[in-house]
């Protein structure tokens, strides 16, 4: 009798251990599945958002070209910081959408700031050693930029 009781306790302990292990394994599997779902959602979100994270904005254009304002109003020698901004803007505007954004922002800035001389603005890229495939002018149709 003593032996049977011992076996029962061993069986009970083993059964308890097996059930606990099964429940833990089940929860662990569910937790892993939830983590995988969360990871997949994060990756999908990053794929969708990534192209927009690097899109050029008007504030980018203004900050890059702000060192040029005095030159665009008064002429003279082109400041190094201005040319660095022009080169930086040209490098940042890779896609067609970025180029159209930059064009529209420059036109808006021209309207909002008085005293900018159009002929000086037209020659600025060349003075900075940058080739832009469209004319910087108020008559430029930004929608036609490729």
TrEMBL record:
Residues in coiled coil: none
Keywords associated with the record: Disulfide bond, Lipid-binding, Transport
SUPFAM superfamilies: Bifunctional inhibitor/lipid-transfer protein/seed storage 2S albumin (SSF47699)
GO biological process assignments: lipid transport
CDD domains: nsLTP1
InterPro entries: Bifun_inhib/LTP/seed_sf, Bifunc_inhib/LTP/seed_store, Plant_nsLTP
GO molecular function: lipid binding
Superkingdom per UniProt: Eukaryota
Bifunctional inhibitor/plant lipid transfer protein/seed storage helical domain: residues covered: 58-142
Function as written in the Swiss-Prot or TrEMBL entry: Plant non-specific lipid-transfer proteins transfer phospholipids as well as galactolipids across membranes. May play a role in wax or cutin deposition in the cell walls of expanding epidermal cells and certain secretory tissues.
Family recorded in the similarity comment: Belongs to the plant LTP family.
Protein name per UniProt: Non-specific lipid-transfer protein
